[in-house]
C-alpha cells in the first residue's frame, strides 16, 4: 500500500479528477487539507433494525433499498423537498431533504445503502429528515458487510457540497488514513503531557474513525489545542514582523493642529476617548508602524478619536486616508470632519473626498490635491485603492467599519505609503477572545463610555404573528414623533420585494437542515408584500412577508397619518449624487421619514432622528440590528426602535430579535451574534466576515483555551523566535495557512 504525508498532493493520492473537485469545492490541495476537514457532527448509531416497528424519536440505522424518488415544491416558502421512499422488504419509510434536489443523482431507485438518523413522523408516515447514508458499491460484494460493521460506530457527517456528498468525503479520508505515515506533532511533548492530549496521528484517526463518542471528545480536545496554538503563534510572529519595520515618528506639535483642535472642542472627551487617544498618540511616535484596532459602541465617538490621530500626523506634514465602505458614509465622514475642524483648521488641512461615482472633472481635481500633498486628510471609498490614486506622503491609514474590508484591500491602501501607521475602527463590538483570535496581530482598544447628553434608546418587539393589529399603531407612533418635530427611519431588507430586488440584505443564518418537513413548511409565509393579504389599510399580513422600500413607500402614501409627512426613499442602487442629496436633505430636516435599506446601517448621524421601525427584523442578524438601531437616540431626543417581526415565538429568528430588544450593550450582543454566526475567515481575505476558517475552535466556547494557547505561544516564541527548535510547529503554521492566508499574513 502506498504511503502519504500531510504534504502529499491529493492529485497523486486520489487522482486528478477527485483532486480537482476537492480543490474547486473546498480549496483542498494536500492530504493535510483533506484531513483538516473534520466532521461537523456524528450520527448516533442505532441498533441495526428493520423498518417495521421503528421507535419514534430514536436514532436508528437501516440497510435498505431506494424505491421511489420525488421532488416537490414547498407550498408556503421558496424551495423544494426531495422525498425518497426506502424499503427493506418488510416495510417502507420516507427520507426527506430540503433544497437538495441534486441527491437524485445518487439516490436512484434500486440503489442500496445504509441510512442513519432520528425517526420522526409526518402525516402519519415514518420519516428520516436529512439522514446520513452511505451507498453500497454494487460491484463490491464485501461493501455491504463492511458498511454494516462501520455502522456500529459513530457515523461522521462532513461539511459537503452538491458535487461532493458526505459519504464521498468519508471514502476519500478513509483511503488517506490507511496510507498515512507518522504525523509531526506541533505540540511540544511537555505541553501535550501536561494537558493530557493525544499524539497528532492518534487524534486524526479518532476524529475520522471513532469507535465511540469518548474518542471523539479526546480527539477534538487535542486538535483544538493544535489549532489555537498554531493560530496564536502565527499571529504573534506577524506582529513581531510589523515591529521590525521602521516608521516615521509623528509627535504632537506644541501649538499645532491637534492642540488648536482640542482647545476649540465644545465638550469634554469621555474617559475612554482620552485613554485610547493617549494609546494612539504613543503608537504614532513608536519606531515601528502602529497597527491598532479601536472598537466601540455605536455613537461612542470613534471618528473623533481617529480625527485627532489624523491631526497629530498632519502636524508633521503627513497625510491620512480614511476609507469607508459606501459613498453615503464617506460623504457623511467628510462633512462631519469639516464641521468638527471648523473653517480655519479645515482650510489648513483641506479635507478632500474621493469616490468612484464623482464626475471625471471632480475626481481629477481631488486627485491633484491628494497627489500634491495639499490635502492632508483624504476620505473615500474603494476609489482610494485605484492605481491612479497617489499620495505625496501617506502616513496613516484609517479603515472605518473594518468588517466591510478584507486584508487585501487594506494592504493595497497601505502600500501607497512607506510603512504607514494603521488604525482600524469598528462599531461592531468584538469579544476579547475574538479580538485575540481574529486580530491577534493588532493592538486592541475599546471605547465603552458614551458621550454625555444622549437620551438613550427604548427598543420594543412588534410581534405580528401574535399581535397582527399592532402594525397600524407602528405607523401612528412614527407620525406622532414627526408631529413633535422629530424625524424617523423605516428600514426594509429589500428595495422591491415583488421584483426580488435586494440591497444590503440582512444576515439571517441558514435554516436548520435537520428540521422536519412540518417545521420547514410551517415556518414559511404566503402572500405578497406591503398591504396585500386582505388586511386593513396600512396593515401588513399576519405572517409577515419580505417587504421592500418600494412597497412601504406606497403603503405610507395612502395613510391618513402620513398625509402631511415628507417621505423619501433611499437605497444602494440609487446614483451616488442622489444618495448624497437625500442624506443632506434628511440632515437638514427637509425630509421627515426616510424609508431605506441598510445603507443607513453605519455612520449616518442625524441627532434629530428619534424613531426607527425595522420591518422584517427577523431577517437581519443581531449585530446588524444593533448597528441600525444606533442611528437614533444620538442627540438629546429620546430614541425609539420598533422591531417588527412575523417570526413565531420560540424560533431562533424570534430569539435574535428579542436579544436585541433586551439590551443596548453591544458587547453582550456581540457574544450572542458570535454564537450564531461564528467568527469569519480568521486569517484570509475575508478576515472580517464570511465563511469561518476555524475548524474546531470556537472563540466563545473555547475562550479559556485560546487564552492558554496565547500564553503557550508567547513562551515558545520568546525562547525560540524562529521556531528552529520546534520544526513541527513551524511546519504546521505553514501547512495550516492556504495561499491567500499566507499572503495576508506576509502583508498585513
Task: Provide an overview of this structure.
With 748 residues, the chain is of the alpha/beta class. Among the domains are: 41-157, OB fold (Dihydrolipoamide Acetyltransferase, E2P) (Beta Barrel); 289-447, Rossmann fold; 457-663, 3-Layer(aba) Sandwich (Rossmann fold), CATH 3.40.50. The chain has 25 helices and 23 strands. A seven-stranded parallel beta sheet has the order 11-12-10-13-14-9-15, with helices on both faces. Helix 8 (213-243) packs across helix 23 and helix 10 runs parallel beside helix 11. Residues 504-542, 680-692 and 739-748 have low confidence and may be disordered.
Keywords:
single chain, 748 residues, alpha/beta, OB fold (Dihydrolipoamide Acetyltransferase, E2P), Rossmann fold, 7-stranded parallel β-sheet, 6-stranded parallel β-sheet, 25 helices, disordered C terminus
Main sheet makeup: 7 strands, parallel
- Taking pLDDT < 50 over at least 5 consecutive residues as the criterion, the unreliable ranges are 504-542, 680-692, 739-748
Mean pLDDT: 81
The portion of residues assigned to helices is 25-40%
Based on helices, strands and strand pairing, what is the structural class?
A: alpha/beta
Strand content: 15-25%
Write the CATH homologous superfamily of the domain at 457-663: P-loop containing nucleotide triphosphate hydrolases
**Distance between termini?**
43 Å
Q: What radius of gyration results from the CA coordinates?
A: 29 Å
Task: Give the tally of β-strands.
Answer: 23
Amino acid at each position: 500500500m502506498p504511503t502519504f504525508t500531510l504534504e502529499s498532493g491529493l492529485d497523486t493520492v486520489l487522482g486528478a479528477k477527485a483532486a480537482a473537485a476537492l480543490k474547486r469545492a473546498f480549496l483542498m490541495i494536500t492530504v493535510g487539507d483533506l484531513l483538516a476537514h473534520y466532521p461537523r457532527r456524528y450520527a448516533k448509531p442505532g441498533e441495526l433494525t428493520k423498518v417495521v416497528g421503528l421507535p419514534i424519536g430514536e436514532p436508528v440505522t437501516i440497510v435498505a433499498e431506494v424505491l421511489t424518488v420525488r421532488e416537490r415544491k414547498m407550498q408556503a416558502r421558496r424551495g423544494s423537498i426531495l422525498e425518497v421512499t426506502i424499503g427493506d422488504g418488510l416495510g417502507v419509510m420516507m427520507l426527506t431533504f430540503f433544497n437538495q434536489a441534486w441527491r437524485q443523482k445518487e439516490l436512484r431507485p434500486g440503489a442500496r445503502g445504509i441510512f442513519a438518523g432520528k425517526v420522526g413522523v409526518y402525516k402519519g408516515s415514518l420519516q428520516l429528515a436529512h439522514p446520513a447514508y452511505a451507498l453500497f458499491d454494487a460491484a463490491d460484494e464485501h461493501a455491504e458487510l463492511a458498511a454494516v460493521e462501520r455502522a456500529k460506530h459513530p457515523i461522521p457527517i462532513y461539511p459537503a457540497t452538491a458535487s461532493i456528498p458526505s459519504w464521498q468525503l468519508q471514502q476519500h479520508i478513509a483511503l488517506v488514513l490507511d496510507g498515512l505515515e507518522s504525523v509531526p506533532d506541533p505540540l511540544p511533548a511537555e505541553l501535550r503531557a501536561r494537558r493530557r492530549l493525544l499524539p497528532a496521528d492518534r487524534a486524526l484517526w479518532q476524529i475520522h474513525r471513532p469507535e465511540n463518542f469518548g474518542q471523539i471528545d479526546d480527539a477534538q480536545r487535542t486538535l483544538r489545542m493544535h489549532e489555537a496554538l498554531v493560530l496564536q503563534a502565527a499571529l504573534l510572529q506577524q506582529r513581531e514582523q510589523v515591529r521590525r519595520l521602521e516608521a516615521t515618528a509623528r509627535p504632537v506639535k506644541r501649538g499645532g493642529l491637534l492642540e488648536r483642535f482640542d482647545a476649540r472642542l465644545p465638550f469634554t472627551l469621555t474617559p475612554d476617548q482620552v485613554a485610547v487617544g493617549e494609546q494612539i498618540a504613543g503608537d504614532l511616535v513608536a519606531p515601528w508602524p502602529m497597527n491598532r484596532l479601536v472598537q466601540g459602541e455605536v455613537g461612542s465617538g470613534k471618528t473623533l478619536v481617529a480625527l485627532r490621530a489624523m491631526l497629530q500626523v498632519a502636524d508633521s506634514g503627513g497625510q491620512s486616508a480614511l476609507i469607508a465602505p459606501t459613498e453615503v458614509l464617506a460623504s457623511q465622514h467628510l462633512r462631519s470632519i469639516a464641521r468638527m475642524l471648523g473653517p480655519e483648521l479645515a482650510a489648513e488641512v483641506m479635507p478632500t473626498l474621493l469616490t468612484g461615482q464623482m464626475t471625471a472633472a471632480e475626481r481629477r481635481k481631488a486627485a491633484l490635491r491628494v497627489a500634491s500633498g495639499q490635502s492632508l486628510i483624504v476620505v473615500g471609498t474603494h476609489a482610494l485603492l485605484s492605481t491612479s490614486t497617489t499620495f505625496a506622503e501617506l502616513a496613516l491609514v484609517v479603515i472605518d467599519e473594518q468588517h466591510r474590508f478584507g486584508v487585501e484591500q487594506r494592504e493595497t491602501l497601505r502600500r501607497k505609503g512607506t510603512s504607514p501607521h494603521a488604525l482600524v475602527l469598528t462599531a461592531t463590538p468584538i469579544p476579547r477572545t475574538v479580538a485575540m483570535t481574529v486580530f491577534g496581530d493588532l493592538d486592541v482598544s475599546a471605547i465603552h463610555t458614551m458621550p454625555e447628553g444622549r437620551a438613550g434608546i427604548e427598543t420594543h418587539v412588534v410581534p405580528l404573528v401574535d399581535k397582527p393589529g399592532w402594525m397600524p399603531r407602528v405607523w401612528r407612533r412614527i407620525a406622532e414623533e414627526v408631529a413633535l418635530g422629530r424625524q424617523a427611519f423605516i428600514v426594509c431588507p429589500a428595495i422591491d420585494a415583488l421584483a426580488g430586488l435586494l440591497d444590503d440584505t440582512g444576515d439571517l443564518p441558514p435554516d436548520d437542515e435537520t428540521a422536519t418537513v412540518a417545521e420547514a413548511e410551517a415556518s414559511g409565509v404566503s402572500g405578497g408584500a406591503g398591504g396585500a393579504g386582505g388586511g386593513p389599510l396600512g396593515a401588513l399580513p399576519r405572517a409577515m412577508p419580505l417587504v421592500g422600500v418600494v412597497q412601504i413607500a406606497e403603503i405610507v402614501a395612502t395613510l391618513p397619518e402620513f398625509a402631511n409627512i415628507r417621505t423619501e426613499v433611499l437605497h444602494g442602487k440609487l446614483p451616488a449624487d442622489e444618495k448624497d442629496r437625500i442624506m443632506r436633505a434628511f440632515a437638514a430636516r427637509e425630509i421627515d421619514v426616510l424609508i431605506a435599506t441598510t445603507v443607513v446601517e453605519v455612520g449616518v448621524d442625524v441627532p434629530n432622528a428619534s424613531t426607527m421601525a425595522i420591518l422584517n427584523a427577523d431577517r437581519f442578524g443581531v449585530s446588524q440590528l444593533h448597528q441600525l438601531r444606533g442611528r437614533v437616540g444620538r442627540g438629546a431626543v429620546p430614541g425609539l426602535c420598533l422591531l417588527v417581526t412575523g417570526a413565531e415565538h420560540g424560533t431562533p429568528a424570534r430569539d435574535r430579535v428579542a436579544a436585541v430588544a433586551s439590551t443596548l450593550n453591544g458587547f453582550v450582543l456581540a457574544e450572542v451574534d458570535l454564537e450564531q454566526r461564528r467568527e469569519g475567515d480568521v486569517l484570509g481575505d475575508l478576515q472580517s466576515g464570511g465563511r469561518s476558517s476555524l475548524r474546531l475552535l470556537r472563540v466563545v466556547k473555547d475562550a479559556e483555551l485560546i487564552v492558554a494557547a496565547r500564553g503557550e505561544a508567547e513562551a515558545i516564541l520568546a525562547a525560540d523566535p524562529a521556531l528552529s527548535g520546534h520544526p513541527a510547529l513551524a511546519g504546521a503554521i505553514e501547512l495550516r495557512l492556504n495561499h491567500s492566508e499566507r499572503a495576508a499574513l506576509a502583508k498585513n
